[in-house]
Amino acid sequence: MINIYYNLIENNNRVSINKMAFYICVVLYL
Length: 30
Hints:
Elements: H1 2-11, H2 14-29
């Protein structure tokens, strides 16, 4: 899972990374 996350970071812009980080935080919070 970590490798997939890093690959998505490399393929996306900083804004997309921030959105992904936000969604991940929400999922972890739930």
